[in-house]
Specification:
The complex is a heterodimer of chains A (about 900) and B (about 290). Chain A is of the alpha/beta class. Among the domains of chain A are: about 220 residues, Up-down Bundle (Growth Hormone, Chain: A); about 250 residues, Growth Hormone, Chain: A. Chain A is about 60% helix and about 10% strand. In chain A, a hairpin with a 2-residue loop joins strand 1 and strand 2. In chain A, helix 1 crosses helix 7 and helix 29 runs parallel beside helix 31. The longest helix of chain B is centred in the first third of the chain and has 16 residues. Chain B has a single domain, classed as 3-Layer(aba) Sandwich (Rossmann fold). Chain B contains 8 helices and 11 strands. With about 290 residues, chain B is of the alpha/beta class. In chain B, helix 2 packs across helix 3. In chain B, strands 5-4-3-6-7-8-9 form a 7-stranded mixed beta sheet. A two-stranded antiparallel ribbon of chain B has the order 1-2. A two-stranded antiparallel ribbon of chain B has the order 10-11. Classes of the chains: A alpha/beta (about 900), B alpha/beta (about 290). Chains A and B meet through helix 10, helix 11, helix 21, helix 22 and helix 23 of A and strand 1, helix 8, strand 7, strand 8 and strand 9 of B.
Amino acid sequence: MAVVASTSRPSIASLEAPRLAHYLAVGLIAGAIIALQISVMRVFAVGSWSHFGSLVVSLAMLGFSLSSVVIFAGKDWFDKHWQGAATSALLLIGPLAVGSNLIAQTVPFNAIFLVSDPEQKWRLLANFLLYLLPFLAGAFFLGIVFLKSRTAFGRVYFADLTGSGLAGLVVLVSMYLFAPETIIVVPLLLWAAGSLLWFSAFSAWKSVVAGAAVAALSIAGYLILPGLLGIPDIAVSQYKGVAYARNFPDGKRIYRSVSPFGDLQVYASSYMHFAPGLSDNAAFGMPEVPANTYVGMYRDGDGPEGIMRNLAPAEQVYFRYLPMHYPYVIKARPKTFVVQFGGGISTQAALDAGSTSVTVAESNPMTLRAFRDPILKDVTGDILAEPRLKVIDYDGRLFLANTTERYDVIDLSLADSVGLSNPGGFAISEKYAYTHEAMLSYMHALADGGVLSVTLWNKEEPPKSVLKLYSTIAEAARTFDSQGAANDIFAVSSYLSTTTVLFKRGGFTEAEIKTLRDYTRSMSWEEVYYPGMAYDGSTAQKILDDYRASIFGSGEDATLTQPAADATAPANPDCDPTAPADPTLDTCAGAGGDAGPQVLPATALERMAWHALLTGGWERLASDYVFDAHALSNDQPYFAAYVKVADLPRTLDRLDLFQDDWGYLLIWATLGIACITAASLVLLPVLFGWRIVFSRSRGKLGTILYFACLGLGYIMVEVGLISRFTVALANPTVSASVLISSMLVFSGLGSLFAERIFDRARTLLPVVLLAICVLLLAYGFTLSLVLDWIGAYPYAVRLLLCFLLVSPPAFLMGMPMATAMTWLARLGKEHLFVWAWGINGCFSVIGSAAVPIVATSFGLSAVLQWAAIAYLVAIPAFFAVLLPSKAPAVRLVTA
Amino acid sequence: MKRRDFLALSAGAAAFSILPGAVRAALPVPYDRNAEVPVNDKKAFIEWMVANRGEDPKFLAERFDRFQIMVYNKDVLDDRNKRAFLSTPREEFVLPQNLGRAYDHAFLDIGYGVTISGPHLVGRMTTVIDVQFGEAVLEIGTGSGYQSAYLANLTDKVHTIEIINPLAQRTRRTYDALIDRGYSVFGSVTSRNADGYYGWESVGPFDKIIVTCGIDHIPPSLLQQLKPNGVMVIPVGPPGAQHVLKVIKQQLADGTFNIVRSDIYNGKVVPFVPFTKMEGDQIVGTHNS
């Protein structure tokens, strides 16, 4: 094979002089693949649970690595038959996408049975293999095109990236037009346009006709086949919230809007009952629970979140029994701020409590639009038109961080959460409203004597989220008021219901503490902290040890082997908790003597936590406790991922116990699978004959390292920034689309620009890599502030600013790949060329799985720092790429 | 297992397997709720059940194995509860495709987005409310019907409400078919398709209430329909790792009520061990290891 090193003129076989139509076609096909990726994730989000979608899709991207191994192994064949192979792969993308999606709906898997039902594993595998197929076809097409146009790599790569990037925006906008059950039309249309253009560019008119026929059949099949075959468009799990609403005899959908912010549906039924955290005493203090009070709002089938109708004056006593009423017990006629509107219950409670004005924020424009819809106006009595109400259409946290207004009450109640347990587990999602920084913003926005009230679900045993919340608020309180924090907090909880923490700027007075305690007693809630509360720490260590043993113990300790004589048995000798009779139950309930019912371990733990947080000893407690209890910060804004990393191996034989952290555990599984695949990819060429294939390729290890670093670095920046930009864009889908689009488009431009430095790459590319490294480090340190600032602008401006903010590193990050690939081609290292493509793809999957793990363990800035290091390591590795392919290396081969 | 037992069981199983599935024979002996079902010996249990209830020895063996683990885990404590568990044919309440896993530790799908809870959880919840004969029990969320069937072996006043109409009808048919076959005990179960949120005022108040569906608060009507010092249990949390909330309606000296929330272990942190498994008669390791 002819090899000319260090030449700027291509002389090896290539895709004959790519023309504009070729580039456009490549862009469209690459765009179709990204669009398919996003669409499949939407299908999973609506049908089952979104993080399984991410798992399936990110693993499907391994198709790129797989295809490159095959092309690598059969390079000569592909060189010869490239046109037929490319045509077949191209024509298969659409039918495979349609067919796979259709069949996948007949083998839905159910996350909640993943551990207990052996069949579910196979269903998950079937879903993965099915969705792999269209990606594999796309990867083959692009792989072959890159192989054949290797000397024009920079331009084809530009087309690939820009096409992918723009398709991200196209899908985003399309989500306004297409519901999840028809969204795959978008990638199909892009694919159809790309295919026709591709065949036209070669004047292959027969193929154009064939392509048009296949495309028309695919799209028609996608839209019609489910109906004909009786297969659902999307098999919605019977365990999704919305499935229950559909099962209610009188369940009726009264509203639906589809948008990038999700598939929002509202169902009405007399069977909907919400009263988040309602005091048990409501049963005796309230004449009657208001009936037919709610409709249920579902986002992507998850929920419901209750939307409340206007209550008649006689019914309004109801609010007194909800935990969001707390701040109004000591604040009359306050000026109130509600951080998240959601279903409107907190807002109603604030209005009902006599607030002179209520400012309420809602960052999801679709929620506000729904409330302005005539049907929902009827239901809610048009709450948004209430004269005392002022609506802020972006994040309340950002508004408060940037405003000079001061409020008497700031309420953050049960934001982003529904009351029922989520059987799919929690995805690793950022909860920026609950971070240290957010709490500080709320505290700063309080008027003198103002009260911040935060309510969270307390449905975990052992407690998880509530401890993270407590440590966040305590940390913020100590930052805000280093001397008086212990006087500023009042906290209560209700076992397996909710917890509420009040922070008062300037501290609570004796009288206020008394009022709050009386109210707490009247509601049968438990006090967990108030200034001056007596504390007995004698059982602290025992409780911590017991909690650890309850999760990671052998199950044979304490209770099971020596139940009756157990040291933890209540002090009351008549109470044997393992004995059956009814009187015993009552005896036990009253155990603990005259002091009333004994303190439950969870409540005792919460008291311990507050004591340690405000008087010292928290670090020790947190390290002894079975689950992670560290404060949330903008850098680590996660309630999920509560299993400590060191405990991960111990979860394997008891996965059932961690169902609510499966989002996190799945990421580890993804990482494991990606690592195994990457390792095999590196090893495969050895099996295929390393010495023969690479005999003329020097710098193999350096080249692998280089492309691994680029794969890791690029995806870590992309995925890491998606999480970060959610701060300003308030929605993960929008953030993902904007980030993917801007990153890819600017990187595409970067790869196009890289042509200008090809000849001076040896000196210039290391500078570029260093610049990327420095930029990423700088972004890591400053992004939080910048995004907070951006977050306060109107949405369109925010989109534009975010788009531009990404451009400098993205532009530079487009250059290293194009430069190195072009040099591999120029140096005649064709096998390495194909292989490098695969390595890059594989490490992208590793990187995307690593991001949440790095973010939860070390923080989001660490993600950017790790990416920066990857680019730094790529500098020396780059010189290995430049080693000429012939010469002394021969000795190695013959040795 | 001894060879003789094996032969006896195999013969029993073979005899059973030739019966057509749809038409099951009536019980050989009239059903007696208070019968002395053997609880200490597997073979005696199986023989007794085959003779008196005509049930499949395969399921009986699985039931007894599960029972032993439940006893070990203290999910069932007293003899009445033990007999009630052993008398309830769980296999009649699972979907055909799950028959092979009827006595697994895990919860199983029964359609409509509803599960039949694992035997350990059912045993524990039933033990906690400690039903005495004659007490009125209300169940919110009939589901498969297994929990009510279990309760029917403890008292003659079981009321159960299911919100999903087709499921309520299906379970009613299951009961009726079992009653036709001679399980007269299930005649104690009154079932109804309605919104359990409002309880069942016309037949209340109740000594004990079991809620088996998710809700973000305890429905006030249920607390109202609970008798003074009555007990209610509600499982909270993800399936498989559910924690049971116990609620007691305490009547104070002045006649007013105080609602006490507690866990079923009265303030003890207990290990979550829903998945121990047996080898022979020994309890070894866990299902996932």
